[in-house]
Every structure is written in structure tokens, then in C-alpha cells.
Design a protein that fits this description.
Blueprint (H helix, E strand, L loop, with lengths): L1 H24 L6 H19 L14 H12 L11 H13 L9 H4 L3 H6 L3 H5 L12 H13 L4 H29 L8 H4 L2 H9 L4 H16 L3 H12 L9 H8 L1 H19 L5 H17 L6 H13 L4 H22 L5 H14 L10 H7 L6 H8 L16 H20 L8 H4 L9
Helix pairs in contact: 1-2, 3-9, 3-11, 4-8, 8-9, 9-12, 12-13, 13-15, 14-15, 18-19, 19-20, 20-21, 21-22
Length: 457
């Protein structure tokens, strides 16, 4: 029986490798039919491979070396692919070339630089400009992100592929580090280390992070490192690791109130101060009044202009059209951010009977549930958090969120709101079932002897 399953694992691994290569090297996002069929096939394979490890039981098992090796190899297969499903990489290259040539990327609009002496010096040509998805917006990527952009551009100043490989390497290394940290943390918590495969083999995680070059991978690594150092009693090192996560993407700032709740007010505030000061220090090389103004203007535009694959916001937008006859994003976006902030504080300080891991999952779920823009790679952070809890609705969402790529079938882009409704409707249903009927998703604690409420700090 074991030999048969191992043989089938090899067949699934080979078929999955072929599907990953097709997605990464040949399928544009406009070809939604083929894209979704390949993703669906990958998730069927993923389900088969991780089925024995989907719950927290069998906690004393050794890591499955074959499957962890597969998780790394699948990522390495994508090393030389130019991202087909996202055009964000071109802004990374644009910012990186500016920084590599000594210019502050926070100070310049791409359109203002086109055909300028700075553009000529930095290799910012018209071909690259035409690939940008936000040429009229200042960059919003934090300083550690910019440093990685700049290093990749410095190492490969004229080669598109070379720069993409340079951008991808920190992501793949972070993913390997995250898998090690996940298994280490799971063992520390007396849980099955193979639960890390729920993240390591997840097709959305592999395609969106290693494939499409999104730096949530680096954020997840530094957040896990912060947790590991906190459990090891190294509070200052943990705060520095969290600051590095914030300096890659700003989202981890949401976890600082949780640190205060877990550590207590005195130690928690000290933790937040250290993380905040380190984050500010990372911004200092770029510091200027223009930096602050440009970042806030871009973030404001993000919440008041951009909308994609939203859930609660789309419902409110429909009500706004019906009541007022026009899009209410500026009004609704502001109040959604207020509700999000209050909800996160409520989860942080009122959910005292659940683990911090579940609180992190709740914070991220609220944040993305109320957001006006939710790209597929955003869901990868929830997948990482789910590893340490009994909840599996983020895995369901990771399988359904590629439906949002249906938007790119037409020019101009047009979202299919029926698919959006299916995506969020199924995820909400699964989440409700997991909350109300936990035995449907995992044996209870009495039967297994394993805590089912996730990470205990």
C-alpha cells in the first residue's frame, strides 16, 4: 500500500511539474480557460499529496523528505520564467534601475521620467514603460523591497531575464527558510511538522510568489522568524525581524497590537517601539518630505481609486449605486478602513480564548475581507497562518481566488462578478462550517490528544 502510494506520488509530482512549467513559461493571463484548468489540476494533485497531513494529528511524524524536496524543486523550476500572470515585476525593475543608478525611486513618476536624461542613464526605455501598470502613480514599495529591486538591477543592468532571476532569488530563498521555520515551530509546539506542506506545496503560493515574483514570501519568512525568536526569548531580535517584514510590505504593522496583548503592555509597547524605530531607520536612506507626501498620496489613491476582486466592498458599492446612482468608493473606502481598524483591535484584545495564530488568521481575514483590492497573491499570507490552526478555509480560498484572472480575458478589463460571488460565497460557507462544526474538518482534541486551536505563545 505504501509502495503504491509512493509510485502515485511520483506520477503526481511529474504531472505537477509539467503543469507548473506550462503556467510559468507559456500561459498568458488572458488565456483564462487554460490557466484555470491547469490550476485546478495542480490543486487536485496538491490535495492528493497533502491529504495524509491535512490535520494536526500524528504529531511525532518525521518530515516527509520527498514532499519537502518537491516543494523546493517546484519553485526552482520557475527560476528562469518571465512572469506571465502579473505585470508588477516591470515596476520592480523600473524602481530597481533608478536605485542602482543612484536615484531615489520614491521621488519620480514614471511618466515624468520618460525620455529624460535620468531615464536614459538608468536604462528606463519606452518598452519597459509600456509594461508598467501604474505609470502615473508614485511607488509604494517599502525600503527593503527597494533594496532587493536595486540589487537585482545592479547585478543585471541591461538584461530583463537576469533582473527577473535576481528578483526571484530572495523569494525562493525566503520560501526555503519559511519551510524550515514552519517545521521547526510546529515541532516546538508539539505538532506534526508535515503541516508545513499545506503551505509548501500549495499551487497558489508557488505560482504567485516564486513564479510571479511577489514579496509576500519575504514577509512570511520574517514574520515566522519574529515568532521563532519571540518563542526563544529574543524579544529585540524578534522586533527587528518584524520591522524587516514591515519594510518589505506594510501589512505586518497590523500585528503590533497583538504583540502588545501577548507580551503585556510594558513589554509589548517596548516591542512595538523597537520595531517602529527599526522600520523608520530603514526608510532613512530615502527620507524626504516628498517621500512622505508621495507614499501617502499613493496609499490614499489605492484605497479610493483601485478596486479588484473585493467582497464586502462590492456589496456596499452595489448598494451605493442603487441609493445614489454612482460609485461611492471614496466614501465607502474610508469607512471600511475605519471598520477594519476597529475590528482588528477587537480581535486582538477581545478574542482571549483563542490562540495568537487564530487571531493572526482573523486579522488577515478581516483586512482582506474589507479591502477594495484583493489580488490572488494576498491569500498566500492566510495560507501560511492556517498551517498553525485547525482552519482550512484559506486553502479553499487559495484554490478559488484564481477565478479573479477571468478579469483579464477582455480589453479593457472587465470583472465577472458572478465568479467573484462564487469565490467568496464558497469560502464564507466553509469558514462558517469550520467555526460551527469543527469536527467536519478535524478530529476533536479528546480523540487525538492534540490541541486544535493552533499556536500557543
Amino acid at each position: 500500500m505504501i509502495q503504491t502510494r509512493f509510485s502515485v506520488n511520483w506520477l503526481v509530482a511529474i504531472a505537477s511539474a509539467a503543469a507548473y512549467c506550462m503556467l510559468a513559461y507559456t500561459v498568458p493571463r488572458q488565456n483564462f480557460g487554460l490557466l484555470f484548468m491547469l490550476m485546478l489540476a495542480l490543486f487536485f494533485g496538491y490535495g492528493f499529496l497533502v491529504m495524509p497531513y491535512r490535520f494536526t494529528g500524528a504529531r511525532r511524524q518525521k518530515p516527509d523528505e520527498f514532499l519537502f524536496t518537491l516543494a523546493v524543486l517546484f519553485r526552482l523550476l520557475l527560476l528562469f520564467a518571465i512572469p506571465c500572470l502579473s505585470d508588477d515585476v516591470y515596476r520592480f525593475i523600473w524602481d530597481g534601475r533608478l536605485l542602482a543608478n543612484g536615484y531615489n525611486p520614491y521621488l519620480y513618476l514614471p511618466r515624468q521620467l520618460l525620455n529624460s536624461p535620468i531615464a536614459l542613464e538608468a536604462g528606463l526605455n519606452k518598452s519597459l514603460f509600456q509594461q508598467l501598470n501604474s505609470p502615473d502613480y508614485f511607488t509604494i514599495y517599502p525600503p527593503l523591497n527597494q533594496a532587493m529591486f536595486g540589487l537585482a538591477a545592479y547585478l543585471a543592468p541591461t538584461s530583463l531575464l537576469g533582473t527577473v532571476v535576481g528578483l526571484r532569488m530572495p523569494i525562493i530563498l525566503s520560501e526555503i527558510g519559511s519551510l524550515w521555520l514552519m517545521t521547526t515551530l510546529l515541532r516546538r509546539l508539539d505538532l506534526n511538522p508535515n503541516l508545513a506542506l499545506l503551505y509548501g506545496l500549495n499551487p497558489l503560493v508557488i505560482i504567485e510568489l516564486s513564479g510571479n515574483v511577489h514579496y509576500e514570501a519575504v514577509v512570511i519568512f520574517f514574520c515566522l522568524l519574529a515568532v521563532w525568536w519571540l518563542l526563544s526569548g529574543r524579544m529585540v531580535a524578534s522586533a527587528i525581524a518584524l520591522s524587516l517584514a514591515i519594510a518589505t510590505k506594510l501589512v505586518p504593522m497590523l500585528f503590533i497590537p497583538l504583540a502588545i496583548r501577548v507580551l503585556g503592555w510594558r513589554r509589548g509597547i517596548l516591542y512595538g517601539v523597537v520595531a517602529g524605530l527599526c522600520t523608520i531607520a530603514l526608510f532613512l536612506p530615502f527620507a524626504s518630505i516628498e517621500l512622505v507626501r508621495h507614499i501617502f498620496s499613493s496609499i490614499n489613491l489605492y484605497f479610493q481609486k483601485f478596486e479588484f476582486n473585493a467582497s464586502v466592498y462590492y456589496v456596499l458599492r452595489a448598494i451605493g449605486y442603487w441609493v445614489r446612482g454612482y460609485n461611492t468608493i471614496e466614501f465607502v473606502g474610508f469607512w471600511l478602513s475605519v471598520v477594519t481598524t476597529l475590528s482588528i483591535l477587537w480581535i486582538t484584545f477581545r478574542w482571549r480564548n483563542v490562540s495568537p495564530a487564530i487571531q493572526i488568521l482573523g486579522i488577515l481575514s478581516i483586512y482582506f475581507g474589507f479591502a477594495t483590492t484583493v489580488h490572488p497573491w494576498y491569500a498566500t499570507t492566510l495560507v501560511a497562518a492556517a498551517v498553525f490552526t485547525r482552519f482550512r478555509y484559506p486553502l479553499v480560498w487559495s484554490a478559488l481566488i484564481p477565478l479573479s484572472y477571468a478579469t483579464y480575458q477582455t480589453t479593457p478589463y472587465q470583472e465577472n462578478l458572478w465568479l467573484t460571488a462564487v469565490e467568496y460565497g464558497v469560502v464564507l460557507l466553509v469558514a462558517i462550517l469550520e467555526i460551527r462544526v469543527p469536527r467536519l474538518v478535524e478530529p476533536n482534541e479528546k480523540a487525538t490528544g492534540v490541541p486544535t486551536d493552533g499556536l500557543h505563545l
